[in-house]
Every structure is written in C-alpha cells, then in structure tokens.
User: Fold these one by one.
Assistant:
Number 1:
Amino acid sequence: MFEIFGWEWRGDPLQCTTVTLFFFFLSWLLIKIIFWKTPRLIVREIGQGHSWYGTDFIDKPTYCNTCREPFVTGHSCDSCGVYSCSSDNCIDIADKEVACKALTLSNSGEMRHHWIKGNLPLCKECVTCGEFCGREPKLVDIRCVWCQIVCHDDCVKPSSRCDFGIYHKWIIPPNCVSLKSVWVKGVRRQFIRDITVPENDWQPMLVLANRKSGNNQGAGVLQLFRYLLNPVQVVDVCEISPEAALDICRLAPNTQYLILVCGGDGTVGWVLSAIDKMKLTKTPIVGVLPLGTGNDLARSLGWGSGYADEDIEDILWDISTARAIEHDRWAVTIRNYGYFGIKRPQKKLIMNNYFSIGCDAAVTLNFHKTREQNPSLFKNRIFNKAWYFGYGTKDIFESSCSRLNERVALELDGKAIDLPELEGIVLLNIGSWSSGCDLWYGSGLECLPGAQSPCDGLIEVCGLYSSLHVGRLQVALADPCRLGQAKTVRIVVKSGFVPAQCDGEPWEQSPCIITVQAHTPALLLRKDS
C-alpha cells in the first residue's frame, strides 16, 4: 500500500474501477477540448484561381479572355465572369494572370473598380459617354465585377471609386472582410474571421441554395448570385450546413441580415430551424426563391409555384419591394405510448406549413420510400408530380386509411370534436396545400367559419373523406370537412400505425398523443401583387 496525494492506494477492485473511469472521462474531455469547434463558413482558398464551370455559349458572341478568339464551347468563372475556351493552356493563363473577384482586400479604404475585359451584356450603355458598349466583333470594352457598370476602353477613369451599384445594400464589401486560415483534417481552409459594418443602411444578403432541389436548378442559381454578390455570401447547403453559413451573422450581431433560401419547403424549414439554434441577436428576414416540387410556402407568400429561369434582376427587384411579416410556426410534440411500462422518447418537430395524418400522408410516404430507393427517377418537378398522382390514384382503390376517425381522437383548445367518417386530418398554417390547393377555401361556394391567415395565431383543421376527395379538392370541385380553428390542437392515435407527415416529411406513427402549440414566429418576406 502507498499514498498518492494523501489518498491511500490499496489496489482493490473498487479503486481500480474508479481510477479507470476517471482517466477515461479525462481522456474524453481532452479530446472534446482539442477537437471542439463551432460551425464556420468555409470559403474558397485565395490564390486558387477562378471557379470554372463548363457550358455552351450560343446566345451571343463570346471571346476567350486569354487568346481573344471566339468560341462556342468553353468555360466561365461563376464569380467574376471571365471566359476561356476549352484550351487547358488558356485556362491556366487566366488563373495566373486574370484576377478573380476578391473575397477580401487588405486595405479598408476606398473601394476601386475591378475591371474585366469584354463579353459584356447586350445593349449596355457606357457609364461615361452613354453610348452602347461591346458593339465590335472582338474582345473589347470593360465591366466592373462588383457594380456591373460597363465602360469603353477609351472612357475609363483610372481613379474611379466603386460604390457596388444598385445592390450595394446587400453586398458584403471585400475590404470589410478578414479571413483566417485553419487546418481541417490535414487541409488548410479559409474561414471568415471578422466583418466590418460599412454603412448605416447596410442589410447584407446571405443566399442559401440547395442545388438538388426540384429540377436541379440550384447550381445555376448559385452561379447567378456569385456573379452579382460577394461569393462568400452564396452558400450551397449541400456542402455547408445552414448553421455554419449563419455563423457569418454573429460577426455583425447588430445587423439584420436578409436570408434568401433557394430551394423547396424542406430547405426553408431546415434554414428556419438553424436560425432557432443560432439564437442570433437580431432575427434575420427570410425570403424564398422556390426550387422544390410543391413550394406551398412560396406560393402562400406570393413567390409563385417555382423558379422558371426568370431574370435574376427582376427577382431581386421583387425582394427589394417585398415586406416582412411575422409568420406563425407551430411546435408538434409527439408523446409515444410505452410498452411494458417502459417510456419511449418524446419527439418534437417544428411545423411551418401543415401537418397531417391519414390518406394524404400515405401518398407522401409511398413517394418518399420510392425516391429513397430510386433517386434518379425524381429529378424533374413534373415527373415528381406524376408520381404523386400515381400513388394518389392507387390509394383511391386501396383506401389504406379507411375509418381513421375510429382510430384517432381530436381536441381543439381542449374541446373534443365529434369526427365524421374520415380518412385524413390536416392542420393548416398557410393557404396553400398539396402543390397550391387552397384547402380551407375549397370550392368557394360555402361560407367560411373564419378567415385564414398565417399571422393570426390560429391553426385551421380540416378533414379528408378519401384520396378521391383530395383529387376533387385540388381542382376546386369539392369542399373540405372544416373541423375548426384553434390555438392548441391535440390528436390521440389510439391503435395501429397511421401515416403522418410534417411539411412533407412522412413517417409511420404508432399510438401516441400529438400536441400542436404555437412556436416562435419567423420573419418572412411576402410579395404583394
């Protein structure tokens, strides 16, 4: 026996177990401290050249910025708009000799124009003389990659100041950004260390796009916004999580950011949940560019059924004139019944659009299962809707959720509701459901028990008689079974498994108690027609 720091060591099993557990805990704690990191917005390494993408240029004459020869098939930088033919030599020379749009600048003084030669937009006037630029069939005249003005080669003023043009309010100036290098898994990465607020009316835009949404239009949208804004503001959520992207908001805590989410309803919900987790000083305002299949939230906010390659400058104009509203959100708490006295974990979801159980959730669940097994079959918005139609038709004959009213009980604000014979129950927060159907309004021939609004703190509850009833609702040939409006909804699943979905994410639900109550509202942009 001997003593260690006044503790007598006897070597019995209890002491050995205690010491082993202590050193195990100490090792775990050290590993957590060493590898602990907060989500960070990793940006492109400075000095790596341009961000090239290959494409065909057949809509206008295009010239290589290196050899100055015209070409049809080649490459372009999605950040600064430099062009190169397919020659590897030209690409290498452009990477070395033609500067790309800077993510950061060491000087914090006056911002100068960054000129790129040739390949100007059609019918663009010179900022100095007012005449059209780029009229000659060669690489001629210049464009600033930040403010997008164009100028004749003979009209340029070498000391001119760049004010970032019409989008100055949304752009993060490179001379206000400082980067820091870190080693991530043996690779050096750059992340944003600090941001200096440039002016009083500054409201920087952060674009979060899902390149896999809908018709895979996200990749093109990312290129368009990197061309107009600072590339550090444009993030692909398939590569960088929304939590890591939103870390940029912490660097200017007293500034209210504008978050533009380019994706479907699932991407919007993902970003809103990330904003909840970040607990930012100023809640960002969230706008939506619909790229998904249903896009019900975008429809209800006036942004249309889906992005159809409209001019991005028209979209930005609509964003500048839109107004922010406090949009209701709901916390869905699912308390599962236990077995043999063993409690099962409680599940909590956030609902932005709608929640349902029954026949419409069954169609979504079948669609989801097939998409997971064969993702290559679901790359087109029209084909996706055809799959939904097929599974809906199948459920008309199968009636998989018949007599749902006998398996569930419904309470609205503590009052039990006597349910008719139903196959589905839908809780609505917005005026668009199942790809644009106004479920609460129905055919418009009946008097509504109450107006619907996503800002009134009330949730609308409807019943569905069958999948055939759903089809008739979508063409405004039927009315729903309106069960009422409430601030708190309670659904009891008594027996069996029933399909359920929350904002398009389906699952099979076992017997449980589902409670829906108000959650922190979100600031969303609504486009007024």
Number 2:
Amino acid sequence: MAFFKTLCYFLVIIASTCYAVEVKILTPSKEGREAALIMVPGAYVSGLAYETLHLTIQERSPFRLWVGLTHSYVGELANPVEVAQGIQIALLQMRALGMNTDIVYLAGHSLGAAVICNYAYDNPSSYTGLVFFGAVPSFPNDSINTYPLPYVIINGDIDGLSRISELAEAYNKIQNSSDTNVKLKRAFTLLEGVNHGSSFASGPMPPNVVENDIDAEISEEEGHASMADITNNFLVVCDGGDGDLLDDAIEQLVAIVDESTPKLQPLIDAKDMEERGNLCPWALQAQDFIIGTPDELQPILSLTNYIDNNETTFLESKASVQNITAGGVVVNTITRLLEPDGGLQSRQSAKSVDCKMKSQEAVMVYLGEGDYADEYTCKQINMVALEWALNKSSSLARSRYESRGQRMVFADDIITNRGSQWVETEIKYEDTCTGEFQITSVALLSDVNFPAAELAGVHYCKLMSPYRAIEWIYTDCLRNGEQTQYETTDEPSDVSASRGRNIHTASIMSTIIMMLMTLMV
C-alpha cells in the first residue's frame, strides 16, 4: 500500500506539469500545530510575487504553517478551473513533503480573492477560513452575512482599485448583524498607507495597476508585518482552542477591527446622504439652499423627495409646490441617481444626482414675503457638497487632498432650454489645462409666469453627490496616472498559446488528479 501511495504521488507530480497552473511550496521551519495557507494571485500578477508577504506570514505565525503559492495561470488570470486544480496540487505536494493536517485556509489578492470566494462557497467543508487581500469580493447570493466560512478582509486606505468606499459599503451591510462574533468571523480591517499592488505583491505590476493605483506611504516590510499579524490572529481565532494564544489573538483582531471601522464611517455617512431607501437627502438639502427660507417661515415649510431611476417616468415627472392644511406649504421634488462609472476606476457613488426642484420665486408665492437668502445655483450647491465632504473626511484624508491631491474646482452651470435637453445633457467631470479637476453642472430654469403652469418656476440641477466628492478626496485625487513606485510588466495577450497549454487540457488533467487523490485516501 505504501508503494502504491508513493506511485500516486509521483503520477500527480507528472500530471501537474501537463497544464499551466503551478505551485511553489514554502515549507515551514518551525514545529507546532500544523496549518496550510494557499494563495491565489491577482490579475496579471505572478503568484510568485507574493512570496515575500507569505514568508513574513509564515515567520510570524504561531503555527507550523505550510504555504502554497499558485502561479502560471493561463493568461496570468486566475480562473475557477485552474484555481481548483492549483489548490489540490498544493495540498498533494504539501502532503508528499510531510504535511499532516486538514486545517486549510485560502487566500487571494484582488481577482484571486473573487475566485476563491466563489470556489469556497461551493466547497465550504474542505476549508477553515478565507483571507481576502486588497479586495471586497462579490459574495455569491449576497451572502456577506451568511457566508459559510469565516473571512477577513485586509485592505489599504489608499487602494486605487479596491476602493475604501467599497469596503465601507460592504461593512455597512454587516455592522448591524445579530452575530455576536461578527468581528471575528467577518473581520474588516483597513491599513493606513497601504495601496493595491506594491503593498501586497513584490516586483513589476501590470499597466492597469500602474495607471490606477496610488503610491504606498509605508514600506513593504511594515505593510507585510501588519498583514501577517492580522492573518495569523485570524488563523488562531478560526482554529479555536483556548489559552493565552487564543485570548491574545481575539484581543488583537478585535482591536484592529475597532480601529478600522470608524475610518469607514465618513463614507457610510456620505452614501446615506446620496440615498436612504427611496429618498435622496442631498436633494432635500439642495432644495433648501435654493429656497433660502427665512427662519420665521421654516416651521410651515415641508420638503419631500423620492428617487425615480426610470428614464421614461423621470422625464415625465414634475416638481410641485402646494398648500396643505393648517397653513403649511410642501415642496415635492424628484431625483434620479445616474449609475456609477464602470471600468477599473469604478466608483460607488452616483455619476450625478439629477434633481427636479422648484425655484425660490415659485415657493415664495406660497410661503409669502420675508428675508430670503440668495438662491443657490447648481454650481454653488456642488461647492457645498465638496465642503460637506471635506468636513466629514478624516484629518488624514483632508491632509492628503490639501498637500498632494488634485484640487476640485467648479465651472458655471450649463443652462438648457427644455426638459428633454436637460435630461440628455450630462454633468461634466474633466481635467483642466492648469491641473485641476473641474465639475460643470447642468441646469434648467423657468420663470414663475411661464405659460405652462406645471413647468413654471422650475429649478432643475444635475449635481455632484457628496459621496462622489468624498470618494475624490479619499482616492481619486491621489492618482497621478503613473505611480512612481512601480515597474511595469506587460499584460499577456495569449500566454496559453505560447505555452501550448490551455484550460481544456487543464480540465482533463484535473480529472486524472482527482482520481489519483481518491485512490490515495
């Protein structure tokens, strides 16, 4: 039987050379309780680029920790077929080298995190927990609160690709969870000065990372030490047991989560200002700025709003003002939130907050005379949005914006002549020749005596959301398009052809390996 098992191991090693994915094993140098950690890389980044990080994790771990770095995926893109194979090959090679444990963790960076999140969701009994580096994966079936395995997210606050706003929105979904151990089973951690690429992986980065990431503010060594400690505390907590080791791990993991989560609150508040159920609170603020209501008339004025993102019904909708019982006046507004941009710079905030509101003059007809403030333009409302965002931001984020960020400026509103033109004309975000980032709103104004009563006294604005402003302060303003810390590597166009190997071949060899594994049990 021993000879047969050795033969199976030998055949596995031969089979594993017949397709793209490979594994480098980092053998442990200490004794103790065994565990395994298998790493899946980000897009166009070699799995070998994570060796320095994982050596640090291994050296600082209380476990006899085996590490498997999967690499050489077809096209240097981790995919479900090859990831499944790479994980199994890593385990087989570790066992062939003497590992004897079923405590297995998966780790992934960026794209790799997304792939292992889906893979482990379908195979939860085989693994103990997951470590997500530089990523907030889309949890299958919106399972962020019900995911079958514990997980920890380790992100940087100046990650140019996996934004801090993504982390904030994900955290906001779990912070009210009824699970008393949520900080341990679904741990959200944020490291200051850590970016997306060079903080996690060593060596050249693909062009998309070079273009969209932000220069890290701390050294690789400092960042890796922090990541290693979070990872190892998470591994100890998942392993359970008792004693000082577990108590210390719980204390340290809870501490870093408690330190991280207040840093997310400004972005959560900004998201809430953009959208709260079917209401846009910022639209109500904007209408209030336009009216400039005297203090003595505030008690009788009410403002309403609802969000209508249907293009047809939004075009047909109209803002209105009317008297209500007991001498009150109500102004009814409608908002459309334009979907965020796509692509690698994908923001969480709406591209524009399109508000149908009433003019100051139209409301004065109902409220009566008084000492009204000046009616705000759309441009002025955008300026207030930036001021709101700066006041809400952390002192560190403000300091970065003021010292080295691309400054945000505002141009005069584009004035349109009819409703359809206003709907079709987009808010402008553009770089200026002097290096600022300029926002230009789109307005539609009509006189209170306009012949068509339902179109009289309108003040429509396409506005920048405070959430868009705070995303700019925390992330976008810090990009310079060519990060000075990076060497660039090409994104492979057809690695599978150059190697003469492809995913189809990998799938066939995977079947052989799975059969051999069954025989070895």
Number 3:
Amino acid sequence: MKILRGRGRVVGGSLTMALGSSRFASAFVPHSLMATSVSLNVAQARGTGYSSLNTVREMSKKDQSFDTWSFDEPCTTMSWNGVSEVSLSATTCGPNWDDETDLILVGIFAPKKTEEEGDSEEEEEEVVAVELSGAAKDLDEKVGGALTNMLQENSKAFKNGAKAGSVTPTLRLFNNGSSQRAVLVGLGTLDEEKEDALAGVGSAVGKALASACIAEKKVRSAKVLLPENVGSDVSILKDLSTTFFAQLYSDNRFRTKKNKETPAEDLKSVTLVSEGSTADDAAGALDAGRKMAAGIYMTKDIVNSPHNVLNSLSLADTAKRLAEESGGTLKCQVLGKQECEERGMGAYLGVARGSETEPQFIHLTYTPPDGKVNKKVGVIGKGLLFDTGGYNIKTGMMELMKFDCGGAAAVLGAARAVGALKPPGVECHFVVAACENMINDKAIVPSDILTASNGKTIEVLNTDAEGRLTLADAMVYCDKELDCSSIIELSTLTGACMVALGKGVSGVFTENDDLAKELEDIAKATEEKAWRMPMEKSYAEQLKSKIADVKNIGGRYGGAITAALFLQNFVDKKKPFAHIDIAGPVWDDTAGAATGYGAKLVTEWVRRQGE
C-alpha cells in the first residue's frame, strides 16, 4: 500500500486523516484554490518562512507548530534563524570602566612556569596565586579584595586561568552602590617566546562570555576586561565575536510559545574593554566575526531542517536568497533537469530520479567588488537532503539522515560569509547538486549503469553509496565547465571515516602536499579539527568493474579511502583537489543538533586564495 506524506495514521490497512477540524482540512486545500480567496505578500511569506500556507494562520484558531507543504505540494522555502541583535563593541579602559553594567568578566593570564616547576603530573603541584594588576587590581580594591579571594578559593580548579576559557564561579559584588556579578576568565599561560601563544584565546573567551551571559539571568549588559595584547589584536577580536554570536544560536523555527528558547534573552550590549590601546579597526573585526557567525547559523539551519521542510526546491530558494542578501557579490544560477540532461549529468540525475522534487543543481558565484581576480576556485558540497539508502535501505540511524546535506550546508554557510566579508582577489564558485536518495518506481537499483558528464560509466552496486554519484557530476562541472584552478569538496560521505577518526575530526584526502598543508593550517586556525588520510592507490583495484569503467563501492575495508579514490575519476589529476569527509563532526549527538562544522574552514580557505 502506498502512503502519501501527511498527518495521518494507518488503521486496519487504510489511511485515515483527522479531518474533523476545519483548520486541518484547510491546511490541505491546494494552493491554486487558496489563491482565489486569499492573497499573500511574497516578502511576508519568506519572512515567516515557508509558503502561502501561512494564510492558514490567519484563518485558524490554533496555530500549527509550523507551516509546511500541502498534501500535494512540497515545501518551497526554508526559514532562517536570525543572528542575535546584541550590540558588541570595543573600547579602551577608562577610570570608571566597570560602572553601569550587570556582569563583569576579567581576563586573567596564568604566569609562565619556571624550569624548576617543570611539568610533573605525578605530584599535585601547589598553585601560586596571581597578583592582580592594572584595572583588575583597581576593581579588586574597590570590592575589598573579593577577586583575590576568588582566585585563592578556586586555585586548584581554575589554576590562575592556565586553560583559556576556564572560569571561576560567579561572584556577587556591591560596587558604587549597585549590585553586580563578576567572573574571572582564564586566558591561558602567557609565553611571549611562542609565536602562537595567543592561538585560540579569542574563541575561548567568546565561548566563556556567551556561557556566562546565558547562565546569569536578567543580565542586560556585560563588560569584558582584557589585557592590551588581547584587546588590540584584530584576529582575536574577530574570533571572539564569531564564537560569541555562534554560541547564542537557538533553532526556534519548529517550537511554539513557551517551548521557544532564547539564550541570554535579556542581554542588550557587551563591551570589550582593553587595558591600553585597542585595535585600529576593532569595530570592523567584531563586525567580521558577526558575519562569520551568520554563515555558521546558515550551516546549522540547513542541517537542522527536517526533510518535509528542506528539499532540493527549498535549498535552491535558500541559495537565491543568499544572492539577494549579498548585495551583488553573489550571483545564483540553478540548473534544472533539462540543463543537467544537456550536460550529460547521468550520475547526479540517476540519484535524483528517486526524489520527490526535481533536481536543482545550485551554482553560486562570488566575485570581489573591485572585479580583480587573482585566482578562480571551486567549492563543492554534497547536497543529499535526506538519505534513506535507496533500495539498499538503511537499517539504522535513518532519523539522522537529514544531516547528509552537511557538505552543502557548510558550503552555503561559507558562501553567505564570503559574500558579506568580500575577500579581495578571489573568484569562488560554490556548487551543490541537490536531491534526495529515496525509493520510488524510478529510483536507481543495484546493477544500474550510470554515465557521468565526463563520459565515465559507473556500475551501481549499492544505492547507499549515492553521494559520490552526485559529486561526480559536480566535480566535472567545476573542473571542465568552470575551469577552477583548485577545488575542495566537503561531504558526509562515509561511516568508515567516522570509524577511523571518531566524531570530532574530519578526514582530508588529497594527493597535493601543498593543499594538504594549507588545509591543515586552516583547520588549526579555525579550530575545526581535520586530519590528512592516506590515498592508497592499490585500493583503486577494488573499484574496477567487469562491465563498466568503475564501480561505486569497493570492498569491506578502507571504505573512506576507496570513496576518495572514486572521486578522483572526475577531476583533472593535475589540479589541486581535496575531498574532506565531514561525516563525524557535522552533528552533535549530545545536543541533538548541527555543529556548523565546515563553514569557517571553507570561508578561510577562500579568503587565502586571493592573497
């Protein structure tokens, strides 16, 4: 029996729908009939997030949890979560810097260990209390030594702030007749001999700041006291801003009323106070961080969206809206079924045959505002909006398969950030072959032969190895039609990579040592962990087909490697190319939500190409 999507249940072999409510019945009126009696402003429809079914809200006594597709039609747009509107600014330290604020965070560097103290872990070492100085000392004296007492009482756990981002318990202060709360934040151990002594400080402080503002209720304003070498560093300020805003993300699109969650809902302003000078373009750095956070929000929104909201049509609509939002730095082109057929994209279209919606091959182009281009690059993201496994149906974890678009999410999130940040000297092509891997009377089956757009024939031995089929035509498009000089591709491609690296690290597969080193450095800078994996050429024997050019799967072992070797068939071997398997870090099992992984890595990679 064929059951169409809808709010119903099977009883005694038949489909029954709860039609007793006029609200429910009206929700499934075809759009064409609804349009005869109700008009809706398009901008309003997009603002609330979905389609003309928003008119149901006006006609019903009870709001639906969210407006989505009708019985006959798929959803055509996805709503976005807005970035927090908290004001984040930077200033220098004045005589009354700590006045008129609800929450104070004081950054503390731990003293460098002497050679005599060593690094022994066998004996519990005594932690020597830090002597506060400068503005922190002045504040401590105002409140009768309360900060010093806090340091001493938490010396073992806090260790003078030796770990960046560590915090003390919140201290209640009475300062100048008003009640305030104070937290000491660790900045790590200051070692001026190390070049990267301050690496990671910005994001660590940003996370600690957001956590404190969320945990402390009724906080409307906060100030963060930072040493000059931290408060005047534009890179640190940008990272702090990015992480702070990213931590305030909350997906309320599918919650109603009291179930909505707004982290730090009372917070209006945060001021970063530098002891000494601040960066010349501190405001620009903080704004850049917020724009990067908007890209991370986009990545999370896409991965978090359920399939009845996010399909190839609504993802293509998202790409178009990103271009509109960019003010001209991004241009969007979407190839439909006919354009893909004309290009011979048989591998992608083979998978797309099983989708509810028609294929949408998304191509966003970033061009710098001055038009000067030193390098043209391509970024490809796997865009499987839901993966059932096809006829090789999955037997576990299917409820998580909305995250199989994690590569596309990272790429579109990066496109949003790049379009806003406007890096010079680089033209970037963001490409996503969007579809779903579903089961119907047209879907591919094991033993089918597909022909990719470069003429390679592929024997499909497992329909659950479908992502690489869609990527094949996307790679040929970037390589041959766009002639990108370097290409990176992100995908939630294999469980084998998760087995090898766990859920916190992505696998980087490339034969180009320079590109591998570049991605390694960027992963460290963006704190998105990645590890270079081997490209064992002998494993390519597993992909040889007896009746076609190549098979879409190898043997039981080394599946992440054979997947990467498969992809090499669709890009010029002389071009720098990297496949990044992000199956592990794209999803946080504890939070039950997307991590936003990949958006920062791709954005930074694109930026560096223009240098």
Number 4:
Amino acid sequence: MDDEPNTDGSGDCDVELLAKLEAQNRLLETDSKGLTRVPAAARPSGSSSRKEDSKPKSGLNLAIEQVVKRLTSLSGSRKRGTSQDTPITEEDIYLAWGAVIANWEDNFHKRPKYVKQLVRDGIPDAVRALAWQLLSNAFDSPLKDTYVELMELPSPSEKQIQRDIARTFPQHTFFKDQNGVGQESLFHVVKAYSLYDREVGYCQGSSFIVGILLMQMPEEEAFAVFTKLMQEYGMRRLFTPTMSSLNLCFYVLEALMQESLPDLYTHFQSQGFFTSMWASSWFLTMYSTTLPLSVVFRIMDLFLLEGMEILFRIGMALLESSKMQLVQMDMEAMLRHFQKEMFVIHDKDPEALVSAAYLVKYSPRKIKRLEKEYEAMRERASEEHEENRRLRSENKLLQDRVNHLELESTSLAGRLIEGQVNLAQEAEDLFVMRRELVALRKHDAEQAEKLQEAELRIAELEHINEVVEAMRSDASSSGDVLENGSTVGELDDSPLRSNELARLRAEVKVLRRKESEATSTIEKLQVEVERFKQQLAQTRLQQSLSSADGSGSGSTSPQAASPSGQPAAKHIQKEWV
C-alpha cells in the first residue's frame, strides 16, 4: 500500500472515516476493556477476516499518518519545552492507537517510526493488553491452546511456586488475598511455563513479570506474552541455571557506570557494594520490586518495543538521578535507598524517569563489543575453571597417593621397629644361648672328667671285685675247713691258726660289706654314666645345630641353666625336637 493519499477520492470520504475513528475513541473512553480483542483488520495475514480487507483505503492511511505526525510533533515540542497552539489530548492518543491497531500489520512494518513514537509516548491503559500482545507477536498464538493443555499436568515445582506466590506483589489488591483469584491465576501461569520449558523450570523473579502481565490480561494471554518474552526477548537466558546472561548484564552495566559515572562506580567498589547486590532484581523482575507499577508498565511498553536496551537505560537513569546522594552513603544506607527510597522518589513523576532514560548515552555497537569481551572473558574463565578442575582432580589423586604412601610408610616403619625389636630380642637370646653354651661346655668338661673318674673307679672296683672273688673262693675253701669240726678244732689248738682265722673272718666280713657297697656303687655309677652319655649326646647335638644355624637358631630363648646344667639341656632338647 502506498503512503501517498488517494487524490481520486472525495473529501467527504476522509471526513467520514475520521468521524468513525472519533466514534471508536469515544467507545474506548466509556469502556476501558473495549479493546481486549484486535479488530479484524489488525489480525495477522493468515486470518480469513484479514483477507477481506487486505487493501485498506487510502483515506484511512492519510488519517493515521496525520494523527501520528501531529502526536510526534507535539511530543517533540513538549520534550524541547516549546509551546504549541494545540496540546496533545487523551482523545488524540486514543484516536492514534485506534487507527494503528485497526491496521496493525501495515502500520508496524511500513511506519515503524510512528509506532515507536507512540509507544515511547505511552500506551493507554485501555489498549495496553492488546498492544502488548501485538508487540510481542503473541496475538492468535498457538501458545494459548498449549496453556490449556499444560493446565491439566502436574509440575515438580508446584510446592516452591506455591510458597513464593504470597511474596509476589503482596500489597496489590489483585494478589494480596490468599488463594484468591489473583494468586490462583499467577500460580497457573507460572506452573504452566515450568512445564513448557523444563530446562528453566521455575525461577524466583519470573512470577513478578507474570504478575505484571496478569494485571492487564487473562491467564492464557499472559502465558503467551510471557513465553514470547522468555523465548524471543532474551529473558530466558537470565533464568537458566548458569544465569550467564545475568552476569553479562552486570558486566555491561558496570562498563556503562565506569564511562558515565566513574565516581559512583569507585564509591561502590570501595564500599564492597557489588552490582549483584542491587541490580539482580532490576533485570529478573523488570524493576517491579524497585519502582512503582506506573513506571513498570511504561518499562514493559518500551521493553516489548526495544528489548534489553531499555533496562540498561532505566538503570543508568536511576543511578544518575541518585548519584549525589549515593556517593555520601555507606553500604547499609545504599541498600535502603535502592529497596525503599527509589520507589518513593519516582512515584511522583513516572514520565520523568522514562525521559531521562533516553538521555543516557547508549551505543548498541559498544554493547556488542562488551558482549564479545564478556564472552571471551567467560571462555577464558571457563578454560581456567576446567584447568583448575583438572588440576584439583590430579591434586586429589596425588593426595590420595600420598596418603596411601604415608600409610605404607607408617606400616613399614612399624614393621621396621618390630623387626629391630625382634632382632634385639634375638641378639639377647643368642647372647643367653652362647652363655648357656659356654656353661654347657664347662659342664660337659666336668661331666667328662667325672665320667673318666667314674670309669677309673669302675676299673678299680672291678679289680677289687676280682680280688674279692678270689678271696671269696679262698674264703670258701677256708670256710669248708672251718665248718669241719675236727679241722676247726685242730686249728683252735694252734694259736697261729686261730689268729689267722679271726683275721680271715674279719676280712671276709669287710670284703662282703665292700662287695655289697661296690655292687650298689656300680649300679649307681652305671645309671649315672648312662645319664651322662645322654647329656653328652644332647650337648653335642645342640652344638652342631648352633654351628649350622648361626644366629637364626635363637628364635626361642632357652631357660637359664641350673647349676647342674640338666634343666637347660632338657629344655634345649624339647625346643629342637
């Protein structure tokens, strides 16, 4: 469709169209919910109603262009402080929005600067719900049907969502009632998205954005717009488990502060007032926990038009407006200022903050460069983290190896000490055994001498025995003589024989006594000789074993020998057997 007006039509046609637009504007003024649905002309090109009016009339185009140009001119004059004969009225704004929405596709794509100016000037409350759907391309989206399907499914995050619902806009009339309509709607939409995007699931802060949408539209429309915000406007990356985009926002905001507000940035750093402490809610809740809702709605208007840029502009405008106060505060006072005082300051004039936001120096090219710098820095940090993780893993393995070696060293030290103790014990046992061996050898020599003496005694006794036997035979013959009375009588007559006989009798008695003593002694000596022979054999066996085994033979300590050496010999015999 051409932007030039159709000169073939009559002026009455244009007047009639303008009258229809004015009538539509009056209808909007009387019914704030009159534009919750897009007229047939504003539907996407796939709609059957759109096909019927695919070529709008040139008179309507002329009217829209004239109204939007007038609004643009008046808005620029207001910002410059210059006066105009005709001020911008609410009727002008409604008329312009009615004309734009009536033919949204052509106006948005062929006259984007006019639509952009209208959005910057503010979307009227009556058409805000419809405008948000059109700006986000969520109108007639199949996401609304998807929402109905997801409503029937359970979510693993239901308990956490239910716990956070009461903390979302607790003072707002729509959400303050426990288990009221507002809280139930909020729960349904947040739960549905946690099922739609299971990787993100539910994240604190997202319920505030859903709450902003539910203040303007029903559940299924709020779900469709919220899903578009998450998927197509980059909000999803703020809520991923790594929150990489949130850190990127902090990095960009800090870079903007260093360039435009270096004193304030230095003060924040000196106080340890990190960006994550005060700017997290700005991006995660779209300023809904910091600023009044009137300002938040304007931020949403501009966010749907321009994306993340407006969040940085609003943030820098907030810092610029409070710079003089912040540089004089400590950390506690700054936290209180961000959490409470900013709300009161900007509740008086919402449009002043929006106007200040567009005075902030913001270069998309520079933001792209900062994003690349951050990505490169994050990749380096990731590589360093991976290297650190690998080194920690290797360090853990080495530490485990060191612990294992320490245990082995402790075990070996224990065994070494035990071996040294055993070696000392064996040395002591060997010394005792050598001492006992010397005693045994001395005892053996003594026993050998005694044995030799015994053998000599035995030989002497055997000789005596032979003599005794000879004398016994002589005595027997003498006895025979004595037994014969006549012989004895004869001997008695001779004094010499009588004396001889008495002597012989005494000798016989002595010899018999000695014989019995010798016999007893011989028997004892034989027993003693046998015992000595056994002891000698055991001693020689001990000596041979001691010579063969050396010091190893001392594993068992023998008992101390008795004075006779017999207990030690018996002990040694038992040990070696």
